[in-house]
Amino acid sequence: MKKILFFTAGLLLLLTFGNIKANASNSDWELKYRHEYKVRVLKRVPIYKVKNAYLDPITKGGYLYKGEIVRTWYRGVAGVDWQVTGGKFGKANNDKFGYSVNWPSRKSFKILKTYKGTNWF
Q1: Domain assignments of the chain as residue spans, ordered by start
Q2: Which of 68, 86, 92, 120 has the least CB density, counted as fewest CB within 10 Å?
Q3: With pLDDT > 90 as the criterion, what percentage of the chain qualifies?
Q4: Is the pTM of this model over 0.90?
């Protein structure tokens, strides 16, 4: 009886969560950048305003334009790929809202400075 119960529970979990693909599998280059960076934007990229503690971007917050300098780090959780602070978005980040950007590739920004953190991951 226990074997049937465990088999049924395992099958249910597989059916429920088995089709979920890891977000990081699409962009392996992002996993190489594990610090906080001061970057210059090289290509225009949309930016999203995210309500903290919720999984979905709320609204498009605008764009990061070529030449803007912001701080960013790869977060990869809770609907946020890259957290953005600094620039015109610096004062807007608080405990309720934050900003997220999905860099299309590494060629979308140039790293100006690296802020190495310890014991983050």
Answers
A1: 27-115
A2: 120
A3: 12
A4: no
